[in-house]
Amino acid sequence: MKIDASILEQLQSLVVLELMKRIQDGTATAGDLATAVRLLKDNGIDARSKDATELDERLKSILPFQAAPSDPDLID
Question: Domain residue spans in the chain?
């Protein structure tokens, strides 16, 4: 059985929207994040160093948490 490409596109859109919702509301699991990364990679979306500032700003606007301040007592 051959499935129409538009149905597959709709399914992919639903999966992406669900992953975004989970990431934004803080309920994403490690598996969800791995799936999101794989989807991005499979679709040729990556972050290059020249795009790092823009990517950082976008992530700050959608992620539900802020990075913890670095602890001066910890060694990186």
Answer: 1-44
